[in-house]
């Protein structure tokens, strides 16, 4: 738990995000990440269902900080959010469910985070080509 707390603290500073202001949300996600580290040695996002966690970690997509966080600065788990506890949706593709659910949430620190922003276009092409 301590290792994951330190990771989260450092990542919020680096990415210009905040942890969720509602008591218990951050701790629950950190607990899930820590359990996955204990179980499969990787901080796999605890907010998703995986038929096979071992297979999932080979793809890296949902290892915290996940691809969506690295590309769009969007956290499905609500671990990395704005000061009000909303996920940042400013950089999401137009038809992303995050925009539909939360509306436009501006990035409070656009100068920080998104180290994989260059992959946004590639990700969008992959998403469109995926069978429905």
TrEMBL record:
SUPFAM superfamilies named among the record's database cross-references: Ferredoxin thioredoxin reductase (FTR), catalytic beta chain (SSF57662)
Domain of life: Eukaryota
Biased segments, Basic and acidic residues type: 106-132
Chain residue ranges for the region called Disordered: 102-132
A GO MF label: oxidoreductase activity, acting on iron-sulfur proteins as donors
Record-given protein name: ferredoxin:thioredoxin reductase
Family statement: Belongs to the ferredoxin thioredoxin reductase beta subunit family.
Keyword GTP-binding: no
Cofactor(s) the protein needs: [4Fe-4S] cluster
Keywords, in A-Z order: 4Fe-4S, Disulfide bond, Iron, Iron-sulfur, Metal-binding, Oxidoreductase
InterPro entries: FTR_bsu (IPR004209), FTR_bsu_sf (IPR036644)
Keyword check for Metal-binding: yes
E.C. designation(s): 1.8.7.2
Cited Pfam families: FeThRed_B
Taxonomic source organism: Geodia barretti
Physiological role: Catalytic subunit of the ferredoxin-thioredoxin reductase (FTR), which catalyzes the two-electron reduction of thioredoxins by the electrons provided by reduced ferredoxin.
Oligomeric and partner information: Heterodimer of subunit A (variable subunit) and subunit B (catalytic subunit). Heterodimeric FTR forms a complex with ferredoxin and thioredoxin.
Enzyme class: oxidoreductase
Catalytic activity: [thioredoxin]-disulfide + 2 reduced [2Fe-2S]-[ferredoxin] + 2 H(+) = [thioredoxin]-dithiol + 2 oxidized [2Fe-2S]-[ferredoxin]
């Amino acid at each position: 738990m301590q290792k994951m707390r330190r990771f989260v603290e450092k990542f919020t500073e680096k990415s210009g995000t905040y942890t969720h202001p509602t008591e218990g949300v951050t701790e629950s996600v950190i607990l899930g990440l820590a359990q996955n580290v204990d179980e499969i040695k990787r901080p796999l996002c605890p907010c998703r269902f995986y038929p096979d966690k071992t297979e999932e970690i080979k793809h890296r997509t949902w290892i915290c900080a996940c691809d969506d966080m690295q590309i769009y600065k969007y956290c499905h788990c609500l671990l990395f959010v704005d000061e009000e506890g909303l996920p940042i949706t400013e950089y999401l593709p137009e038809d992303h469910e995050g925009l539909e659910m939360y509306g436009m949430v501006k990035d409070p620190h656009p100068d920080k985070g998104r180290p994989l922003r260059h992959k946004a276009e590639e990700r969008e092409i992959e998403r469109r080509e995926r069978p429905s």
